[in-house]
Amino acid sequence: MKLDNPHQYIDKTIALTNPSDNSHYLLNLAQPVYADEETRTLINMIQLLAEENQYLRKENKRLAKSHR
């Protein structure tokens, strides 16, 4: 599916899943102006973890290709 006019924050949204009850959540990582310090810290931590996860996935694919 191609979005011709995507939402302005679509690139800053991640999906979270809870395997214990099979729940799915969308989390917007855009920091609202009214966010308190704790909320901003949590959003920053999630952003860093998402970036690290993306890097590790790429590294995993690269290593899997080299060990074939």
Name the average pLDDT: 77
Taking the alpha carbons of the first and last residues, their distance comes to 32 Å
Number of domains: 1
Please estimate the helix content: 40-55%
Q: Structural class from helices and strands?
A: alpha+beta
What value does the Rg take, in angstroms?
A: 16 Å
Q: How would you portray this structure in words?
A:
The chain is an alpha+beta fold and 68 residues long. The chain has one domain. It contains 1 helix and 2 strands. The chain has a two-stranded antiparallel sheet with strand order 1-2. β1 (13-18) and β2 form a beta hairpin. It starts with 12 loop residues before the first strand and ends with a helix.
Describe the structure concisely for a colleague.
With 68 residues, the protein is an alpha+beta fold.
Walk me through the topology.
Elements (H helix, E strand, L loop, with lengths): L12 E6 L4 E6 L8 H30 L2
Antiparallel strand pairs: 1-2
Which short descriptors sum up this protein?
extended, 68 residues, two-stranded antiparallel ribbon, 18% strand, single chain
